[in-house]
Amino acid sequence: MENQVEEIKKKLDIVEVINRLLPLRKRGRHYVANCPFHQEKTPSFIVSPELQIYKCFGCGKAGDVFSFIQEFNRIDFREALEEMAKVAGVKLLNTFEDSREEKNKKTLLKINEEVARFYHYMLTTHQLGKEAREYLEKREIDEKMIKTFQVGFCPNDSRLITAYLKKKNFTEEDLVKTGTFGWSQYGGKKLYDRFSGRLTFPLVDFRERILGFSGRVLPGAKAEQAKYINSPETELYHKSQMVYGLNLAKEAIRKELSVIVVEGEFDMISPFGTGIKNIVAIKGTAFTEEQLQLLRRYTDTLILALDSDFAGNNAAIKSIEMAEKLEFEIRVVNLVGKYKDPDEAIRDDPDG
Asked: NCBIfam families from the xrefs (predicted)?
């Protein structure tokens, strides 16, 4: 294993690896950036291409390419090694033995991938997804965006998806652990899908892992149904840490040196489809500190485009106060009172 660690390090350039995650600027023989591990205005984070190490002279964090990936992605050495092996094109001969907790998480991730695949198929191909497809057409969400965001549809009959997953040898207990499924209280112990009859949006983290889902009702749904629901808190999904679309937007955020922040999925998807790529959704009416810290890795400039209704304005105030404490530069998009949210504005005036 030690030989493979060195093999991977020799095939990687720490400057290239870090620059994909954090904008670096050349300064003499080294590269510099604002440290991603603490707030600062003057760059004190140094990367040495000669020594293949990094060091922050502000907070003291230092190490090689593996320790950087561990710190930046908040993962252990084994996960960092596996990620860097893929980047370097090295096949690990001796992998670590997964703990019970790690095995469980991998199983849940596999289930989420299959669930997303099933939902997407039902939306794009199956007759049961026709109404949902027509709704997306009315909202001017095209096939490319449906594929990019893996938008799906969950049929009302939960037996369809549970039968599909059982054929993949997943247990009912594991399905429930994902948060997507629960035990019905009626007619005996049966599994139900909490997203039945809804459009579905996979909640993908910045490492391209599907951690959970959100679902939106279609027009004509019962009035007592919540318009949007999310996965509950699970071993994988924590709402306070999720920034929707960051996996797709992070490169553009780094390039544009700013991020546009909206509330909901459609608020992000519509602008993204018109070419506005440095945009994410916070899935609620206010930031959490975890969300802000995650965005701070990629930029120090927030452009808030929250809904123009009362809740949106309150959210903007709360978010501004929290972001200011983290030394973000903050700008606010004025929807001129004409539009409720960015999705509505884009559909009405795509060139505006």
From this structure: dnaG
